[in-house]
Specification:
It is built from five helices and eight strands; from the N terminus they run ααββααββββββα. The chain has 200 residues and is an alpha+beta fold. A two-stranded antiparallel sheet has the order 1-2. Strand 4 and strand 5 form a beta hairpin. Helix 1 crosses helix 3 and helix 2 runs antiparallel to helix 3. The longest helix is centred in the first third of the chain and has 21 residues.
Length: 200
C-alpha cells in the first residue's frame, strides 16, 4: 500500500475550502468572529483531551499552586474518570486539526514557524563537555567554548546536551537559550506573499 505524504496543514486548507472557511494567503490576524470561533475550537478540543487522559479541570483555591496552568486553573488527576486511549489519540489529532485551521485562518505557514520554535526549544538544553561534564559557554563569535579552553582534554571532547531541572521538574533554560523569533518568520512570509501576489 502506498502511503500518502503527511501534509497536515495542506489537508486542513482542503477541509476549510470545502466548508467555505476563509484561508488567508498572507499572515494577518483574523477578524473578531474568526478569532472567537478558533479560540472556542482549540479550547473545546483541549478539554476533550484532558478528559481522555482521565483528568479534570480544577478552578480557584482547589487548583493547587504546584499544578496550576494559570493562577486560577489547573489540570488534576480525577479518580472518577477512566482514561480512554482511543479518545486520547482522537484528542491529539483534533487539536492538530483546529490548530492548523487557526494558522490557516491567519495565513501562517507552519513549517518555518515550527522549525524556529523547535530551534529555540532545543536551545534550552545545556551544552556540556562530553569528557568532564563542564558547562560550555558561548564565546565571542557565539561558538561554544570549554572553560579550560579549546585545547581541553587535548581537543578530544565534544558537546553533549543535558537537561537541568528545578526540584518541581520544571526545565531551567541554558545560558545559551535563544527565544523563537516568530516576528522575523511572519515578516518573511508577508514579504513573500506580497512578492507573489498578482498585480491589479
Amino acid at each position: 500500500m502506498t502511503q500518502k505524504p503527511y501534509r497536515p496543514q495542506e489537508d486542513i486548507v482542503t477541509l476549510m475550502t470545502q466548508f467555505e472557511q476563509e484561508v488567508k494567503h498572507s499572515p494577518e490576524l483574523p477578524d473578531a468572529a474568526t478569532r472567537l470561533l478558533r479560540a472556542r475550537l482549540v479550547f473545546e478540543e483541549a478539554l476533550e483531551f484532558v478528559r481522555a487522559c482521565g483528568c479534570a479541570i480544577a478552578m480557584g483555591e482547589s487548583a493547587g499552586a504546584k499544578r496550576a496552568v494559570t493562577d486560577e486553573v489547573s489540570v488534576v488527576a480525577d479518580p472518577d474518570m477512566k482514561p480512554d486511549f482511543m479518545e486520547y489519540v482522537d484528542g491529539c489529532i483534533d487539536q492538530l486539526v483546529v490548530t492548523y485551521g487557526a494558522l490557516n485562518a491567519a495565513g501562517v505557514k507552519a513549517q518555518r514557524a515550527w522549525d524556529e520554535v523547535q530551534r529555540s526549544n532545543m536551545s534550552k538544553a545545556w551544552p556540556h563537555c562530553s569528557v568532564c561534564d563542564a558547562v560550555l559557554v558561548p564565546g565571542s563569535d557565539e561558538e561554544l567554548i570549554h572553560s579550560e579552553g579549546a585545547d581541553a582534554h587535548g581537543g578530544n571532547w565534544s558537546k553533549v546536551l543535558k537537561v537541568h531541572k528545578r526540584e518541581d521538574g520544571k526545565f531551567i533554560k541554558a545560558p545559551t537559550y535563544s527565544p523563537a523569533d516568530l516576528k522575523r518568520i511572519i515578516e518573511e512570509q508577508i514579504e513573500e506573499a506580497q512578492a507573489t501576489a498578482p498585480r491589479a
